[in-house]
Write a structure and sequence with these properties.
Helices cover about 40% and strands about 20% of the residues. It is built from 15 helices and 13 strands. It has an eight-stranded mixed beta sheet, sandwiched between helices. The chain is globular.
């Protein structure tokens, strides 16, 4: 058990996510003592040779306090206003605390659109890696002020996991106000046992996770499990632990048995397939027959038009689409070689018929196996 923990934390590139409850006073302004303690621990990691990226919640909660709002608003423009006000104080707090340890910080604001576009994705990766090389600690947040429902990550757990894939982190640490994941869902843990070590894809986690009950946060244990599964696609281990435990980050670094360790159980996807798999929104859907589902899932082959029974949505060539079975379950996703209009004309047909149907042949497959990710 200890050896796996030490192995999971031995890598030098970490992403650390901190929840709202750890950096605010129950949603009433920032907790400077907690932020100062966290900054000290982060500085120690950097001094020890770790490359660290921080994803911190708290901007909206801080903004609510500054604006004297008692309840979290529902309207997105009000949330954006609170985030804009609170982000200033949050970053200022981290900057002042980190500078006490002679550590520079950098603010990086992202939307899902930045990671959905391949060019912007690669540019973000290059910038973050350069900041890490400069021994600067990037503080990454969702750009709440401009994000809309269609381009939101939804929670900072997901954002942290996507950033861990973006920079090919070895370890994702999610600090929360709980000790970790229990075998029973939150609210029913009187007889529950803390899960010490488990595969990120173990079905037990789906039963153990529950929705968030916090007024100041968006995530819950379920989003943390999903984040761990995203991180696992790139081969990163995830540790979910209590940020209220004294010196929690040094303890994790030593391989101490803190929180719950969620381990990857498959070979990491190559970078391009990670990008495809991590798209939060797809442009369309291809409904596959049973034969096509079996072939692409078990044989690792390309998706041909003959195995497609239906085409949903509107998409262009090169956009990410879902591949579902007849029950509507997503089994794969990939980059389409043809538009939705063309795909509708080709569905159920042989590859040798493409030219006769469209008047030209671009590719013999609807999705090539190199651009197809099995989920």
């Amino acid at each position: 058990m200890g050896s796996k923990r030490k192995q999971a934390t031995s890598g030098n590139r970490w992403v650390i996510k901190v929840g709202s409850s750890l950096v605010t006073r129950d949603g009433h302004g920032l907790n400077m003592e907690a932020i100062s303690s966290l900054a000290s621990q982060l500085a120690a990691l950097v001094t020890a040779g770790k490359q660290v990226i921080l994803t911190s919640s708290g901007a909206i909660a801080a903004g609510m306090h500054r604006l004297n709002w008692q309840n979290r608003p529902r309207a997105i423009f009000e949330l954006q206003a609170a985030a804009a006000v609170g982000q200033m104080g949050l970053i200022q707090a981290y900057e002042s605390c980190l500078q006490q340890h002679n550590l520079h910080s950098a603010q990086v604001l992202l939307t899902h659109a930045d990671l959905q576009n391949r060019k912007r994705y690669l540019n973000a990766r290059t910038t973050l890696r350069k900041l890490l090389e400069m021994k600067t600690l990037p503080v990454v947040n969702e750009n709440d002020t401009v994000a809309t429902d269609e381009i939101k990550f939804g929670d900072n757990d997901t954002l942290a996991a996507l950033v861990s894939n973006l920079i090919e982190a070895t370890t994702l640490v999610i600090l929360t106000d709980r000790e970790g994941i229990y075998e029973t869902p939150p609210g029913n843990q009187t007889a529950g046992t803390l899960i010490n070590e488990i595969s990120a894809n173990d079905p037990l986690l789906d039963k153990a996770a529950g929705p968030s009950t916090r007024a100041t946060g968006r995530g819950g244990m379920r989003t943390k499990v999903l984040a761990a599964r995203i991180a696992a696609r790139a081969g990163a281990a995830t540790i979910i632990a209590s940020g209220k435990t004294p010196d929690i980050l040094p303890r994790i670094t030593r391989g101490d048995s803190c929180g719950s360790l969620l381990l990857p159980d498959a070979e990491p996807l190559v970078a391009r397939k990670q990008w495809i798999a991590n798209q939060l929104y797809t442009r369309g859907e291809l409904v596959l027959d049973d034969g096509a589902c079996a072939v692409i899932s078990k044989s690792g082959k390309s998706l041909l038009a003959i195995g497609v029974e239906g085409v949903k949505g509107d998409f262009d060539r090169g956009e990410v689409v879902s591949c579902t079975n007849r029950n509507g379950e997503e089994i794969a996703r990939g980059l389409a070689n043809y538009s939705s209009e063309e795909a509708r004309k080709l569905q159920g047909r042989l590859s040798t018929e493409i030219e006769a149907v469209l008047g030209y042949v671009d590719e013999p497959e609807l999705i090539h196996r190199d651009n197809l990710v099995i989920l």
